[in-house]
């Protein structure tokens, strides 16, 4: 059961259905207050404390009223959710069992945002702050925590939540400015936050800065006038020195421009081996035309020297990825982040086309790749509402999250795809950089909400034709196209402990196959982990 208390009380069962509080024309204020205070108390609450939370008149005995409210609550809540326990000296204790509360999510995401910001991970902090603010969407200033009782005991819980909302709003705006995300949408967003706290000088200052950076100096000066009036009206004092200083700099045209990273950071150089590119070799094995004579000769030589069918594994992998996308779309995922997306012609249909046919609403998809050739083609082909491409290195988690969060809503489930891309990442050490890559994947997964998924496919050295190793094994000094042939155990670690959907981690041709499985001389295995 989910309990939403940040606005008006709303209860939903485990299937997502809204529970009827049985109010009819009469709003059951005391019943709502009881459920709200129990939701915010993550522990058994004695009846004496419940009375103090619900009523401010300690001289009056509310025992019978409380007993009646508990009985009403049992009738509207799912069975077994309002639990009565026996405490010391026979005291009666009450608690809500197996509940998720939006206020708890809000506090947890705010703390994660603070931690990321303290580490200098601004894009990750922005994701967490944005998610922290999500439960407040649609809540008007006069309806915040509306069904909590106005008592001294309840205010001890309500006031910190309201104060935290203000601080998180300030932090979210500040981080976006630090990232150089000034935009008309940010100016509008700041205005929405000011509706909750009209005299907030930090927000007023940041609105001036955003307007100035957008080239709207006159609007910024007008915004200062409005800010001064709002502060005077509510507090009876003029603006403070920090806000006045920004106004003076804007008036003089001396406010420094944003000096951070550009909107689209330059990707690291694409991995190459001699005259070969991984993209071109893959393209040739799939029958494409975006490859060089050297790349075609390399593939032909492997086939001639080993008689292998390893080149067929690329099509097996492509088909598996599309089956994974259909599976996630069937589970309600409407957003995808594809790390190392490759040439659009190599994945046909694409992730967003596949998700669109498997879902009842248009998906939102962000593609990431650091290959300039992929970038040119993808920008031409991946256009339209809800689809974006960014030329970035997947190892730069901050830049990827920053770019992806402009299209994807990280407060909703996301399907994170790393299809045959992690084998090129990590140092060549005794563990093939697996620990390093596990930390990388964890940073991405930490930014996802429960209900999200991680889909991974990865080449493995387990059970491959030994003759292939000298061509592709990163531990072989003369390998022409080196990549990490990790073991099944190492690849499983890259799924960072997430429970796997059936059939688990297996050959891509055997992952929910649509045709008979054929084992290849070169193996790629894959699986999907669920963030629960």
TrEMBL record:
Any single GO BP term: regulation of DNA-templated transcription
One MF term in the entry's GO annotations: DNA binding
Residue intervals of the Bacterial transcriptional activator domain: 101-251
Keywords for the protein's UniProt record, in alphabetical order: Transcription, Transcription regulation
Transmembrane intervals: none
Protein name, UniProt field: Transcriptional regulatory protein EmbR
Organism of derivation: Actinomadura rubteroloni
Gene name of this polypeptide: embR_3
